[in-house]
Amino acid sequence: MMMFSPLYMMFALPGLVLALLATVMTQSTFRKYARVRASSGLTGAEAARQLLDREGLQHVAVEPTRGFLSDHYDPRTNTLRLSEEVYRSDSLSAIGVACHEAGHAIQQAHQYVPLALRTGLVPVTQFGSQLAPFIVLGGLLFRFPMLVNLGIMLFTAVVLFTLITLPVEWNASARAKQLMVGAGIVTLPEQAHAAAVLNAAFMTYVAAAISAILQLVYYLFLARRRD
Length: 227
Prior knowledge:
It is a single chain. This protein is mainly alpha-helical. The protein has one domain. The protein is built from seven helices and three strands. Strands 1-3-2 form a three-stranded mixed sheet. A hairpin with a 4-residue loop joins strand 2 and strand 3 (79-83). It starts with 5 loop residues before the first helix and ends with a helix. The relative contact order is 0.17.
């Protein structure tokens, strides 16, 4: 009931709208430059491999995976997984995304602190994002303040994760923008188009952070009203 109350929607709606706009912008920008081929002729997989090898990261694997824009780097297995649209395409969109994910592997190799912090928060974030709302609701229903506080603490970790994600993603994109030109993967004019995809994608992380903050404020408001 808490999740469908008018009060909850007042807090949640701005984040939902921002997330929708960011997603639409990312997808439209990706599709726009997916029609523009890179002069180098490299596919996303080849571009990522070239960047990784250039940084001495031959041990990092590059594999295809299913799902539109499901691209990610798994630091546990040193594996860079690229969606089919990125792995096999020689478009500027594909190269931008692939080099961004390679940027995460480079971050790990250089012991980039925010990435290590984010990786460490993954277990508690997964737990907190799924269970915190129910813990808060249970605490309110049964008038158990400690349970409410526990839920708020768990969701605070979720908010912290989204905030740490911002410098991690921005830094990975910054590395990609610089290295893709230095490695001859794209020309300087092409880099601006590949970067547009990364800039649009970054807004999805901004929207996620704002949405999480608003949800935490809602929980704090409920706890204060209870008191």
